[in-house]
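Hey, quick one: can you model this chain's 3D structure?
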Amino acid sequence: MIILLFSFAAATFIFTILGGFFAYRAQDKLHLVISFSAGVLITAAFLDILPESFELRGGGEGDLKIILLAAIVGFLLFHLFERLSVLHSCKEGQCENTLHSHQGGRLAASSLVFHSLLDGVIIGLAFQGGIKLGILVGLAVIAHDWTDGVSVVAVLLPSGRKWKEMIFWILADAIAPVIGVFIFFFAFQPQILALALALVAGIFIYISAANLLPEAHHHHSSIPTLLATLAGFALIFLLGKFI
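Sure thing. Here's the predicted structure for all 243 residues.
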């Protein structure tokens, strides 16, 4: 398991950097990458994380309600974090899209680095639920970290930041999940782990529904964008069947 954790930590680092460089080089195709990542995250939440949380909790009717409530709490907490930590660079009603409405400066980039740290925590946490869950969640987080690298560049470009400063923030965003991977890698009681994973599921659902999908479809609401989301769903669905 330690080897797998190191592997996923390295993968998050690499994919975050690749996402940042891709965003800078191919800005016209970002909607496909973001849409694909949304499909990966939301499918992992509903088909893998929530069912696993339910089983760890005990599998009773009352357990289902508790798990769903924990997912809602995760959703709302992440929403509150975004509202409190991200400054807006435009007046209400005048923002063009989700990513570009955030202040394209150091505070916005710092917020994304913190999100990446949380991604690493999610991987370490998921491995406590088993190898299969860890791999599936790890793959979902890698896809999300790709979009984190994309987002770092996306929030810095409108503010006219130089490429050297973008590289700094991309590297900071890449190293954050490597640190976060090991934060929660210690023994959990199954019921506590179930609640923690349910919180993670709520976070994944929020990121997909509130951030990634609106951004992907804002200027590119097309069949290829929709197909990219379906491809993300298919990847996680097939991995769940064959792993």
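One thing worth noting: Confidence is low (pLDDT under 50) at residues 87-104.
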